[in-house]
Amino acid sequence: MVKENSVILGIETSCDETAAAVVRAGETMLSNAVYSQIAAHQPYGGVVPEVASREHLHAIVPVVRQALSDAKQTYDSIDAIAVTQGPGLAGALLVGISYAKALAFALDKPLIAVNHLEGHIHAVLLEERQKGNHDLEFPVLALVVSGGHTHLYLATQSGQSWSYENIGRTRDDAAGEAFDKVAKLLALGYPGGPMVDKLSAHGDPKAFKFAGSQLKHPDRNEKSRSDNGRPRFDFSYSGMKTAILRHVDTHNLKPSIEARREALLGVAKPKLEDYLARCDRPTLDLIASFQRSLVEDLVGKTLAAAEAYDVRTLFVTGGVAANNELRQRFEQDGSRAGLKVMFPSRPLSTDNAAMIAAAAYPKFLVKDFAGMDFSAEAGLVLR
Ligand code: KG4
Ligand code: ZN
């Protein structure tokens, strides 16, 4: 029997966060436990897949126990187990999947496989429902913008079933990847998005222009229509990254970058003040100008897509949706364009398992359960 107020335990291990959460009826978050592996990857300046898998193995049991006890639930009281199937790092996904399968088998409870990107979209839905907002105008345009993804989806709901049409993706780097790579180049720590966000407020965003014209990519505009003839709004951020690299060379910023790197090696957890004390004016202006250029590109293309598809509701979700300037720009320009713009709260913008449990609920209602033979899919596509 499918209970309407069922409680789902969600498990998420697609990248560098080991997460578990309990959500009731897709709309009430009872707990949200996240163990971040950032400290383990920091020395390498990026996520090391092997390290991620090992960290998930250490963390998965305590994180799930934490989520259950925070939610005042037990293994017996939950109604189903949901887990991220992909996209993500195969070895990392397998830890969550194997654990979820073992739990489902031992407890004799249904297992639900969830696409990580659908999870990011349902993070917004979960919180909107939690606020009592059950009315949405379809289709919804969803920008999923994170360390691994920059996608535009048209999302529609028919009965309990959701479907997604991809109308834009990055041709090269994801937006969060661009934030992280530029931050690494400028010795601003890892992951760099949050620090670029904070430092940008201290620089002049108009000092330099890394405009769309610098986003060169050979096939950038070649395919502005998909196979079904519908317009596409693809992104490209590798050109912007190269432009910053060139700027560093031509403005002779390398010595100050190396000095910052050396000085901060001795600081355990550098804070905004530590970086501010070691960033001169041209560097702060460069950081703010980079962020402005990237945000303008993301907002411009997304709003153009909303207009082309005559959409009224926009979701902006994924790690980069935590960015302050991005939120402000979407709120200002979106409302000017007559759009209702919705973001998840910051804790639900970055990877978490509440979004996985929420996305699993419609599947639970129609008994769309996974068999014990399903496996991780690193390149899982959202449809
Ligand atoms: O969604 P997420 O936790 O993991 C992926 O699915 O990739 O996103 C992580 C990404 C990282 O690239 C991180 O630098 C970026 O989100 N990020 C931000 C901010 N907070 C996190 N980027 C810009 N501004 C932020 N405030
Ligand atoms: Zn994510």
Explain what the structure shows.
- With 383 residues, this protein is of the alpha/beta class.
- The chain folds into two domains: 7-132 and 349-365, ATPase, nucleotide binding domain (Nucleotidyltransferase, domain 5); 140-311, ATPase, nucleotide binding domain (Nucleotidyltransferase, domain 5), CATH 3.30.420.
- It is 43% helix and 17% strand.
- It is built from 13 helices and ten strands.
- The strands form two sheets. The chain has a five-stranded mixed sheet with strand order 3-2-1-4-5, sandwiched between helices. A five-stranded mixed sheet has the order 8-7-6-9-10, sandwiched between helices.
- Helix 4 crosses helix 13 (354-365).
- The longest helix is centred in the C-terminal third of the chain and has 28 residues, at 281-308.
- It binds 5'-O-[(R)-(carboxyoxy)(hydroxy)phosphoryl]adenosine (KG4) and zinc ion.
Radius of gyration, in Å, reads 21 Å
Q: If you consult CATH, what is the topology of the largest domain?
A: Nucleotidyltransferase, domain 5
Under the CATH scheme, which architecture of the largest domain would be assigned? 2-Layer Sandwich
Number of domains: 2
The profile of the biggest β sheet is: 5 strands, mixed
Strand order across the biggest sheet?
A: 3-2-1-4-5
Count of alpha/pi helices: 13
